[in-house]
């Protein structure tokens, strides 16, 4: 059984899709740990299964980034985590964290990387006038939003689309994309060696792309 940790900074809107995935034993994964750095999160709206640990590790309570990361690392190790899922987690990890956990950490980003990395990706896409956007799930490395890509989704951006509308559409595709990426990893079909994704078996390319 693969123990999964889910980290988020916002409302935790992507947590439910991971929770549902882990509730099905056929997927060979268990949502063991949920961590947020958002002390104002609405706990009543979080989909945290019974038996899953939940912690708020607010970075504002620590002297620096390394101390904050150390608190997170301790929880990850205590819970024997095999896969870390960053679902709207807005903190950038240090090289030390990446060295320890990068090979088992995936992130979702609201754009078709390598286009529009970093913050405010949805508004940047609208400002540039792109006609399609989407989401990317990738392993992390020492460069922000530059890790090897696991899977992507694509959606149409119509003229006049507002940022809030695009954000909602992308979030909806992420709810399908993240479980897809998790299945590829927990089933042993792919792994990350720190530089490249290693494919251990033939993969249907439809699993790597979601079109809307």
Features:
single chain; 212 residues; alpha/beta; Rossmann fold; 8-stranded mixed β-sheet; two-stranded antiparallel ribbon; 5 helices; 10 strands; 25% strand; GART
Quick gist of this model?
This protein is α/β, with parallel strands linked by helices.
Strand arrangement in the largest pleated sheet: 3-2-1-4-5-6-7-10
The residue ranges in which pLDDT falls below 50 over 5 or more consecutive positions are none
Shape: globular
CATH architecture: 3-Layer(aba) Sandwich
CATH class: Alpha Beta
Structural class: alpha/beta
Q: Could you tell me the strand content as a percent range?
A: 25-35%
Element-level helix/strand string = EHEEHEHEHEEHEEE
Whole-number average pLDDT?
92
Task: Count the domains.
Answer: 1
Number of strands: 10
**How much helical structure, as a percent, in the residues?**
25-40%
Largest sheet: 8 strands, mixed
Straight-line distance between termini: 32 Å
User: According to CATH, what is the topology?
Assistant: Rossmann fold
EC number: 2.1.2.2
Domain Formyl transferase N-terminal: 3-182
Organism: Vibrio spartinae
Keywords: Purine biosynthesis, Transferase
């Amino acid at each position: 059984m693969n123990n999964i940790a889910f980290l988020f900074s916002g409302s935790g809107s992507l947590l439910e899709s991971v929770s549902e995935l882990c509730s099905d034993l056929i997927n060979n994964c268990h949502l063991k740990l949920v961590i947020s750095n958002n002390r104002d999160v609405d706990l009543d709206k979080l989909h945290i299964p019974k038996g899953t640990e939940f912690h708020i590790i607010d970075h504002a309570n620590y002297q620096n980034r390394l101390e904050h990361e150390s608190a997170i690392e301790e929880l990850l190790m205590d819970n024997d985590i095999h896969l870390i899922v960053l679902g709207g987690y807005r903190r950038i990890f240090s090289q030390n964290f990446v060295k320890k956990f990068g090979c088992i950490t995936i992130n979702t980003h609201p754009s078709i990387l390598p286009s529009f990395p970093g913050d405010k990706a949805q508004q940047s896409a609208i400002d540039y006038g792109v006609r399609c956007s989407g989401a990317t799930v990738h392993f992390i490395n020492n460069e922000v939003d530059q890790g090897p890509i696991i899977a992507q989704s694509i959606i149409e951006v119509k003229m006049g689309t507002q940022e809030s509308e695009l954000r909602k559409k992308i979030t909806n595709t992420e709810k399908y994309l993240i479980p897809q990426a998790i299945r590829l990893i927990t089933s042993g079909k792919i792994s990350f060696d720190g530089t490249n994704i290693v494919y251990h078996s033939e993969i249907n390319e439809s699993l790597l792309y979601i079109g809307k």
